Amino acid sequence: MERFESITTRALQACLLLMAFAAPISIAATQTAWAFALLFWIIRTVAVRPRIRPAAFDLAVLAFIALSLISSVFSYEPRVSLGKMAAVSLVTIVYLFAGNIQDRRMFGRVIVLLLVGCFAACIFAFLTFAVGKNLKVLRLAEDSPLRMAGIEENDTILKAGGRQVASPEQLAAVIAETPGQAVPIDGYRHELLYTSNIVFPLSDVSSLGIVDWSRGRDTRASGFYGQYVTFAEVLQLITSLALGLLLLADGSIFRGKRLLLLIAVTTFAAALFLTITRASWLAFLASAGVMLLIAARPRTLLILAACAVPLIIGGLIYLQQKRQVNFFDSADDSTAWRLTIWHEALNVIVSSPRHLAVGIGMDSVKTHWQDWQMFDNGRRPLGHMHSTPLQFAFERGIPALAAWIVWMFIYLKLLWSHIRRKDLPWPGRGVVLGALGGTVGFLTSGLVHYNWGDSEVVMVFYIIMGISLAVMRRSQTAEALC
After folding, report:
1. What domains are there in the chain, each with its CATH number?
2. Is 457:232 a contact under the CB 8 Å cutoff?
């Protein structure tokens, strides 16, 4: 039995290490590792049968899961909502990490692999920005068929016929494959993603009327995900973790682990900057502000504040150049869209006792939005509510929202109580500090993003939550991780 337990433990820990490395890179690899880790965990639990003593944190998690399940049963689309319970079950990641990081070596490896995976994603984003991607049209002939199709100078052509294009030759090749038929062209212009259909006889590449072009560099950094908001949210969480470790590490800033952490924080922050995602920028500012107030000396705070001013000004200028919007811009279409759907969602919630109690069910809005004339009666893109608390209330009801708030409150309270413990050494205390800052940032951006509905992001959040719980649960035992 001991040998069996040892084998399953090692297999489970190998899966956790793969999850930590893959989380900033690939959702497929992360979820595959999670599935195998869960399998080994269940096998070992059945064989060993450990005692389970639920704490307040665990009860809050169970209440949130149970209320989500009840909401799914009473959903307008029960089959769809029950299918979304698979995403809810990702919370098991917390317990996989919290229960199976049992020594310093495993603890250190998980942290290092998570940071290394994020570093690799950032390097990929930098290389993509340096080399460029897709086809940016700088000048078009007056009689260019692209101009006639609605493509303007300085637009970036992302795809043609569903395929990525990076040169006029590639674009011409796609069009030539379907002579006389409409070819959909996906383009990017500032914040606008559009599709134009083009039909014309193509003799050679010159007939496109592209006078000058380059590789595109105006799309926002998205790492390996292909989605900039997802990448920005993950970067906020991992950058906060690295900053927490840096702030509480001993020694000179330019030596050993502190130098490596400084390089990591700088790299992650630069990649976050290139995502040009306002909510995630603000989230990291909130996260860093909380951590600095806790860990930094007054003199250090003044120096950092002085350094932050030009960076913030530069960020606002870069935002204006790349997205043609201000940081807080009531004229921005994405802001107007949020205000519209927030108002509509609140009206739906209060329109029925059923909605208040169990919501409408996860993802049922996609087929029932017309029942409530949502999304400006279909004139705006269909989607989610762009706010985590509002999404929970809308889809799962007020009790589920309350359970989630209690869960987050207990977690933050646990983190705060352990940060105040001076006897908790580094790196454990640094992880707890980074988790606190990252959670503050995550909840901040969640006010205007439904970041809890993004599996890539929530998996990273759960991994960090599990690591921090492992530190806190073993902080008073002989098995302390630090």
Report:
1. 56-131+220-482 (no CATH), 133-216 (2.30.42.10)
2. no
